[in-house]
Specification:
Elements (H helix, E strand, L loop, with lengths): L4 H7 L5 E2 L16 E10 L9 E6 L8 E4 L3 E8 L7 E4 L23 E7 L4 E7 L3 H4 L5 E7 L10 E9 L15 H5 L7 E4 L2 E2 L1 E6 L4 E7 L6 E3 L7 E5 L2 E7 L6 E3 L4 E6 L7 E5 L6 E9 L30 E9 L9 E2 L2 E2 L4 H5 L3 E3 L2 E2 L8 E2 L3 E9 L5 E5 L4 E6 L10 E2 L1 E4 L4 E8 L3 E7 L2 H5 L3 E6 L2
Parallel strand pairs: 1-13, 2-5, 4-9, 10-14, 13-21, 22-28, 23-26, 27-35
Antiparallel strand pairs: 2-3, 5-7, 6-8, 8-9, 10-11, 11-12, 14-19, 15-18, 16-17, 16-19, 20-21, 22-25, 23-24, 28-33, 29-32, 29-34, 30-31, 30-33, 34-35
The structure holds CU-O-CU linkage (C2O) and copper (II) ion.
Copper (II) ion (CU) binds next to loops.
């Protein structure tokens, strides 16, 4: 059996099981108020039917790890206990956090060795859909399952938990028996092409789950793409979904997408608003395989008792966060030239201060570069004063799509290849940029420290698409 995505996906159709509602995990909180998150090996079934368990790495023995659900302004205290065989750390993706809590091994902290612990203690300034994941050898650790959702509720007028569902989406590469394929981790082919792409999708760690939703009632579906490299192509139209938020930040108004499918890149989030209609089944379809694959389905329940009329159901308000607006008059401009990869212009690549020769690629595994430099150099990409506005012009001179992420800040996406975006100038923490495209973003560098800027296709980051900038105190 050839194991391309499509045949694999087809072979398992019809094995839908009715999964339980996602329960908000009650993780163990120690007497000192720290939530304990243990990173360690675990087993989990990823494929349907009688597939064997996969050997994964996870937080508190399940992938995704415990959902952390807090309120805006709350203080989050997590004790990471490392029971893995390699060093690790946790990054709180999208949280505008104090630099020393950002969890980047080798930049903001030392990696936590096996057997050791680390205490994270920070305030969450913004409401929205975020996630946490390993940030040491992420290409390995995230692909094995080290991630979880981090949901920050607004103060009032949010959906109740029944109408607020988190869907953590992951793309796995399974072997012939339906187990996690660890043998192909680190393939140079993946690193120099589109990253590690899988052949199976899970929702909240389950294979093709089904969720019960009530007809006529509005739901917020928080979608998080935790894939190493897969840009999910989602048919949101079929769901009748409208957009509430990207990357945790609400749009100014509930927005209908004028195009399909919705692209959700690695690390990106989207909050959808859906109002199920009676008798109309709903599926979450991914269409990048050339044919629709329903990776979650929704059973629409019609309550027999007289439920409140539609109009009486409160549509939750959009919860806007207080993000600093760029000052375009006094902005500092920087250009990021992205090069390398298969079928691309290699040009010169400097790595650890040395210009790479063709023959060095195998030993260094560095094949991509930002402004000619692969991975973190001693000097930052740029260094700016606190509260400077930064305009970053990103130029993708490669043959691949990328998902660019900035730590510690959200930015407005101003334009893509010279044109405006359909959704105004949305706030994001991760943006997609297609081959030969340019994208301009702006943000206020209000958060002092050393911050990472990288491609969230984790193999690309490992293979060079990784840099840092500094905001002076
Ligand atoms: Cu989601 Cu460098 O992170
Ligand atoms: Cu990339």
């Amino acid at each position: 059996m050839s194991f391309n995505r499509r045949t694999f996906l087809k072979s398992s159709a019809g094995s839908l099981g009715l999964a339980l509602l996602p329960t908000s995990f009650k993780a163990s909180v120690a007497s000192d108020g720290f939530l304990e998150i243990v990173a360690g090996p675990s087993q989990q079934k990823l494929y349907s039917g009688d597939a064997p368990d996969s050997d994964l790495w996870s937080y508190n023995e399940s992938t995704p790890g415990p959902e952390i659900r807090v309120k805006r302004g709350d203080r989050v205290k997590v004790r990471l206990v490392n029971k893995l065989e390699e060093a690790t750390s946790i990054h709180w993706h999208g949280i505008r956090i104090a630099n020393d809590m950002d969890g980047v091994s080798g930049l903001t902290q030392k990696a936590v060795e096996p057997g050791a612990t680390f205490e994270y203690d920070f305030i969450v300034p913004d409401a929205g859909t975020y996630w946490y994941h390993a940030h040491n050898k992420s290409w390995n650790q995230v692909s094995r399952g080290l991630y979880g959702a981090l949901i920050v509720e607004g103060d009032t007028s949010d959906f109740d938990t029944e109408h607020d569902r988190t869907l953590v989406l992951d793309d796995w590469r399974l072997d012939q028996s339906g187990k996690f394929d660890s043998a192909s981790l680190g393939s140079l082919m993946d690193w120099s092409h589109g990253g590690r792409l899988g052949n199976w999708l899970t929702v909240n760690g389950k294979s093709q789950p089904s969720y019960a939703l009530n007809a006529h009632e509005p739901y917020r579906l928080r979608l998080i793409n935790t894939s190493n490299a897969r840009v999910l192509e989602l048919d949101t139209k079929q769901l009748g979904a409208k957009i509430l938020a990207y990357d945790g930040q609400s749009l100014p108004a509930v927005t209908e997408l004028s195009y399909q499918p919705l692209l959700l890149g690695p690390a990106q989030r989207v909050d959808l608003l859906v109002v199920p209609k009676p008798g109309v089944p709903m599926q979450l379809d991914e269409v990048s395989g050339g044919q629709a694959f329903s990776f979650a389905s929704f059973e629409i329940v019609e309550k027999s008792d007289s439920t409140p009329p539609v109009a009486a159901l409160t549509m939750p308000a959009l919860i806007l966060n207080d993000l600093p607006e760029p000052d375009f008059e006094n902005a500092r401009m920087f250009t990021l030239d992205m090069t390398g990869g298969a079928m691309g212009r290699m040009g010169d690549i400097t790595y650890k201060g040395k210009k790479l020769e063709r023959a060095d690629f195998r030993s260094t595994r560095q094949v991509w570069a930002f402004n000619g430099v692969a991975n973190l150099a001693d000097a930052p990409f740029f260094s700016v004063q606190r509260n400077d506005t930064i305009i970053l012009d990103t130029v993708n001179n490669t043959a691949f799509l990328h998902a660019m992420h900035i730590h510690g800040h959200h930015f407005r996406v101003l334009e893509r290849s010279g044109s405006d975006l359909d959704e105004g100038k949305p706030w994001r923490d991760t943006f997609l940029i297609g081959p030969q495209q340019t994208t301009k973003i702006a943000f206020v560098a209000d958060n002092p420290g050393k911050w990472l800027l990288h491609c969230h296709m984790l193999e690309h980051a490992a293979a060079g698409m990784n840099t840092w900038f500094e905001v002076m105190a």
